[in-house]
Amino acid sequence: MYLKEIIKKNPLLFDLLLLIKHRKDRAFLQQVYGLRSNPDLVELQTNAKGSEKDGILCQIEVGGENDGFFALVRWSLDALYFCDCFSLRPYLRFSSKNLYHDPAMPAELNTFEYYFQQPFSDSDNHSGSYKTTIQYHSRNGLKAELLNGGVNYRTTNIYIEEMAKIWRKYLRFNETTQKTIEYELKKRSIDENVLGVHIRGTDYKLNCKNHPCYITPSEYYKHIDIAFEKYHFQKLYIATDDSDILADFIKQYGSQNIIFADNISRGTGTQGVHTSQSQRSLHKYLLGLEVICDMCALAACGGLISSMSQVSLASRIYKKSTGADYKYDELLNKGINQNGSYFKAK
Question: In angstroms, rounded to a whole number, what is the distance separating the alpha carbons of residues 114 and 130?
Fold first, then answer.
């Protein structure tokens, strides 16, 4: 009896013995394995004091302290896809440790709401409003990511098509974000005659493990030249986080042929702009707004050349969500770094 009490007080030992006891029970083992990888596994939470409000609320928190802005958006799309599969009512928030949380923003807003509207205006974060709620788990995101064969930088066409449907159905910029996008697109004079180029620099030059291999500006040039010759683009829109890379493109093609955002933060060397510090007011908030405008500018272009990144993926999804496609679309790929250090925001 004393031994049983010791075992029960030691969760690891108790679980190991439980697995040994049920080692021949396939259903039990699949349930345990599913805690990490079964996207359909959820935990219902009932609230006896909850109202009879229609639907089941799914409370979603995505992202970590190393995620760039459109990684957060991608995980949000995955979560919304999961909700759509089961007719759940989503409430979205970016994790409290995200890189874009800005202490100067209103405290009642979570970081997702700096830029987007909640998918349902009545799906607030007060679970007491609903009789039944679900707490979203990262494994549920595999429901969408399995369309890629797992979480990959190299995504499939079917994933892009499905996420475009989800974006069109659920994701809406808030009024401030939408007005800023419209102002910036008009200012930058983006249309179908512009070829968009997205190139990541700064921390991508570190070739961190499990991140795409860095592709230099010169490796873009031949693809740009082909696109100009074949599709008669008139100008280049350069979206980059790296001021040195922007200078390289201006030198190669001339300032008269280059469009770029002239009022945003960019980095040099290997310090990522999304992990940078600044004394400017609302710096963290503005970093998110700036990359949104860059993504929308890329989506407004007639063609796109990019390496594998979350920003370029978002531009492809967003453009398709509007019912449009690029007339020229080139994804440059030198593979994923298998060695090196893991990326960590400084």
Answer: 25
- Reduced to 3 states, what is the DSSP secondary structure of residue 244? helix
**Which residue type does 217 have?**
P
Express each pLDDT in 139-154 by its tens digit: 999 999 999 998 888 8
Identify the pLDDT of residue 130.
80
Residue 222: both structure tokens together:
């031949």
**CA-CA distances (angstroms) from residue 56 to 49, 230, 334?**
15, 51, 43
* Placement of tokens 């609230």 in the chain: 47
Amino acid identity, position 74? R
For residues 260 and 187, the answer to whether their CB atoms sit within 8 Å is no
Cα distances (Å, whole numbers) of residue 58 to 35, 85, 133, 135: 18, 12, 6, 6
Distance CA 172, CA 305 (A): 26
Structure tokens at 293: 């405008």
Kindly give, in sequence order, each residue whose CB lies less than 8 Å from that of residue 214, ignoring residues fewer than 6 positions away: 200, 201, 204, 205, 206, 207, 334
Tokens of residue 77, six digits = 């799309």
- Cα distances from 29 to residues 23, 184, 325, in angstroms, run 7, 54, 45
Residue 83 in tokens: 């909700």
Q: Which residue has the tokens 């042929």?
A: 257
Return the SS3 of 230.
helix
Give pTM, 2 decimals: 0.86
Q: Residue range 14-38: average pLDDT?
A: 63
Give the burial string for 187-216 (b: 16+ CB within 10 Å, else e): ebebeeebbbbbbbbbbbbebbeebbebbe
Output 230 or 336, whichever has higher pLDDT: 230
